[in-house]
């Protein structure tokens, strides 16, 4: 069974497109990885919000787990990845449901050092995305 890629928690450098009202303490990226039902990353408004993960060593990604807030999800998620020092290339497209349920997507088992998830089409009129949990499963190489 796939193992959580090491440090999909705070140990993996993560960047996000924006944070609601720039209030990182309340709505910051760290909340996607804290396993709390009470906290979340809440983007600011605007189209195409995104998250990037920079793994400390190559990872063969097999699953993506994401939990949105219903009404603030993405109809289309584009996954891109690359090895260190290379340009991002498109891996796959996911079509999540607009719900609060944990969603599991299987990806082509691509080896990468960097993963970018772009939320292309928010269900929120203002383009905001709310993620309670983000997990990447795979194996270290």
TrEMBL record:
Q: Which GO terms describe its cellular component?
A: nucleus
Give compartment(s): Nucleus
Does the keyword Transmembrane helix feature in the UniProt annotation? no
Keyword terms: Nucleus
Q: What is its main location?
A: nucleus
Q: Which InterPro entries match?
A: Galactose-bd-like_sf (IPR008979)
Q: Does the keyword Cell cycle apply?
A: no
Q: Which family does it belong to?
A: Belongs to the NR2C2AP family.
Could you tell me what this protein is called? Nuclear receptor 2C2-associated protein
Q: Give the organism the record lists.
A: Mionectes macconnelli (McConnell's flycatcher)
Q: Which gene encodes it?
A: Nr2c2ap
């Amino acid at each position: 069974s796939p193992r959580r890629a090491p440090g999909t928690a705070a140990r993996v450098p993560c960047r996000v497109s924006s944070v609601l009202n720039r209030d990182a303490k309340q709505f910051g990226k760290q909340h996607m990885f804290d396993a709390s039902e009470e906290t979340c990353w809440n983007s600011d408004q605007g189209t195409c919000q995104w998250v990037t993960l920079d793994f400390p060593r190559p990872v063969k990604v097999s699953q993506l787990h994401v939990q949105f807030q219903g009404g603030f999800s993405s109809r289309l998620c584009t996954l891109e990845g690359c090895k260190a020092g290379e340009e991002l290339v498109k891996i796959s497209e996911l079509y999540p449901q607009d719900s609060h349920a944990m969603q599991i997507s299987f990806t082509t088992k691509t080896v990468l050092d960097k993963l970018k998830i772009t939320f292309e089409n928010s269900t929120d009129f203002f383009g905001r995305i709310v993620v309670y949990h983000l997990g990447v499963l795979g194996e270290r190489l």
